[in-house]
């Protein structure tokens, strides 16, 4: 994947985010998009070697429209300034967790897991963690997982992808109702999602070496995601 070309285009678009510029450079967008989609196809091929549940996916199943939905936003710029792909067995709009690739100048990352879960499903996930604590800790407190994603940051109530790594985008300030406040691992009950991410340099997606890197990162996160998916799938 020619990440340098992709990021150069996105950097130019960021300062020229209007239809006139976009149409003038449409051929470059088409070339960049095609190259990104080849990279997504490579990623699907690599991930399916250790997660066969995603083998049926096509690139179209995993990628997003480039046009922004500006109806409810003060920012009326028409185009996204990143390219992303969410490789999830039940589809990119499902609650079932998957694997995410994000190319954006200065903000490239890889991520894995489950996002923005409804309260009833969160309650079931929390019960699963409490009922199988040793298994959960084995999956999220091992050296490989924490090397890439770190630990839950207990004092914070909101994390961002601007941080170098993280586990849990949003969390409650206190223990959720109905759960013991004095539980030793209460920080995992406060999570409102089970998403983990790792920021990478803009050069990360150059060439083909990144396929080896994402395999290692995603393998480290998959046991955690599998445990949450086993709960979430009962609702889908």
Which class best fits the helix and strand makeup? alpha+beta
* Fraction of residues in H or I helices: 40-55%
The rounded Rg comes to 19 Å
Estimated share of beta-strand residues: 5-15%
Low confidence ranges: none
Task: Estimate the global geometry from the Cα principal axes.
Answer: globular
SSE ordering: HHHHEEEHHHEHEH
Q: How confident is the prediction overall: mean pLDDT?
A: 94
* Number of helices in the DSSP assignment: 9
Total of domains? 1
Extended strand count: 5
Task: Say what oligomer this is.
Answer: single chain
Q: How does this model look, in words?
A:
The chain has 236 residues and is α+β, with helices and mostly antiparallel strands. It has one domain (3-235). The protein contains 9 helices and 5 strands. It has helices at residues 3-15, 19-24, 26-47, 59-62, 119-131, 133-140, 143-149, 186-189, 209-232, and strands spanning 83-87, 98-103, 109-114, 165-167, 194-199. It has a 5-stranded antiparallel sheet with strand order 1-2-3-5-4. It starts with a helix and ends with a helix.
């Amino acid at each position: 994947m020619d990440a340098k070309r992709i990021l150069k285009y996105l950097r130019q678009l960021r300062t020229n985010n209007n239809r006139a510029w976009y149409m003038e450079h449409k051929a470059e967008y088409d070339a960049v998009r095609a190259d990104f989609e080849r990279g997504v196809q490579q990623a699907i091929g690599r991930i399916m070697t250790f997660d066969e549940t995603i083998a049926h996916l096509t690139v179209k199943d995993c990628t997003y429209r480039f046009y922004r939905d500006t109806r409810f936003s003060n920012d009326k710029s028409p185009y996204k300034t990143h390219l992303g792909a969410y490789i999830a067995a039940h589809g990119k709009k499902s609650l079932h967790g998957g694997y995410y690739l994000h190319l954006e100048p200065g903000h490239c990352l890889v991520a894995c897991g489950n996002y923005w879960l409804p309260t009833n499903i969160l309650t079931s996930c929390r019960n699963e963690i409490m009922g199988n604590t040793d298994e959960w800790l084995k999956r999220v407190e091992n050296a490989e997982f924490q090397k890439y994603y770190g630990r839950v940051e207990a004092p914070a109530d909101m994390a961002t992808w601007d941080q170098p790594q993280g586990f849990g985008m949003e969390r409650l300030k206190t223990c959720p109702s109905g759960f013991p406040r004095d539980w030793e691992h209460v920080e995992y009950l406060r999570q409102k999602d089970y998403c983990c991410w790792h920021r990478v340099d803009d050069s990360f997606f150059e060439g083909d070496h990144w396929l080896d890197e994402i395999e290692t990162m995603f393998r480290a996160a998959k046991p955690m995601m599998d445990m949450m998916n086993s709960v979430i799938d009962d609702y889908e």
